[in-house]
Amino acid sequence: MVAVPRVAILSRHVELYSTRRLLDAVVAAGADPVLLQPEQCLLMLHDTQAALYYGSSPLAPCAAVIPRVGTPITNLGARLLRYFAGEGSCCLNSAGALELSRDKFASLQALVAAGVAVPQTAYFTQAGQRDLAVSSLGMPLVQKLLSGSQGVGVSLADTPAAARGMLDTVLHLQHEAMAQRFLSGRQDIRVIVLFGKVIAAMRREASAEDFRSNLHCGGRASALPDLPEDFAVIARRSAAALGLSFAGVDIMLAEDQRPLVLEVNPVPSLEGIEAVTGQDIAGTLVKALLRQASSPSPQLQP
Ligand SMILES: Nc1ncnc2c1ncn2[C@@H]1O[C@H](COP(=O)(O)OP(=O)(O)OP(=O)(O)O)[C@@H](O)[C@H]1O
Fold first, then answer.
1. Inside any domain, residue 302
2. Those residues with Cβ within 8 angstroms of residue 290's Cβ, 6 or more apart along the chain or in another chain
3. What is the pTM of this model?
4. ipTM of the complex
5. Which residues line ligand 1 (CB under 6 A)?
6. Which tens digits make up the pLDDT trace of 123-151?
7. Atom 15, ligand 1: which residue's CA is nearest?
């Protein structure tokens, strides 16, 4: 009898759209879904052995793992992924790739190193560097917290005085600050990359009330069935630069119409993209992951 592969989904809430879709897709693929709420896990190291207890019982081996961990629990998610990788599970995204892509500045550094163009962005830790950042980036200026998602922690300053005040506050609270040149397009393109292939894309447009095009900030999305090839190349290269097998790559146009990568999301929501494209992204993802898990040399990353 062939054993049914167990697929773990790391997610805080079963009722989240993407989590539900993935659980259903695992069942539809003939595998056995296991929902693991990260905060219910206990990791134990002893001599050269590692163990994971879920509730009070040791967890049975899983063939594959799908991380759906939010920004506040990136560290916990990465530690769990390191455990699973050590056990030989095929993880959709690795611990290192998750950590790198959740750091908004380090991830841009990795993109630049891979030859992917990004918006002009400043990172600094002292108020003494603030004025050079503000005068270099011009007005308006976008301030971003180093970690955040769904547009939270991304704000706009219209005047140098507002920018200085905002950056001083961030430096005081976070001991580091990141600021970016404002791109006036009001639209961005989200490209979904899975195992090195573009599988879906959508255009997101900011509402009249906000400069952010995130759907959580009132942005409107539409399908983009004919993604230009240069955008597809950039999206694939961006996912590869961060070591992500599954990624949502956000691209905006510069004033001179060059595509620039804003960020690469390691846990992109399936809700908006499935709604506007009508595609079964969850099913495609689970089938590809199970193929990867059963291949003779599953992709195991540090
Ligand atoms: N430099 C910029 N110029 C103009 N708009 C920007 C800029 N940076 C971000 N935005 C807008 O703000 C939105 C949120 O920014 P960003 O993607 O960096 O934040 P996030 O919180 O990580 O979002 P996500 O949940 O999509 O990962 C973008 O989708 C875009 O609409």
1. no
2. 5, 7, 29, 31, 63, 64
3. 0.94
4. 0.94
5. 119, 142, 144, 148-152, 154, 180, 182-183, 188, 206, 211-214, 250, 262-263, 265
6. 999 999 999 999 999 999 999 998 877 77
7. 151
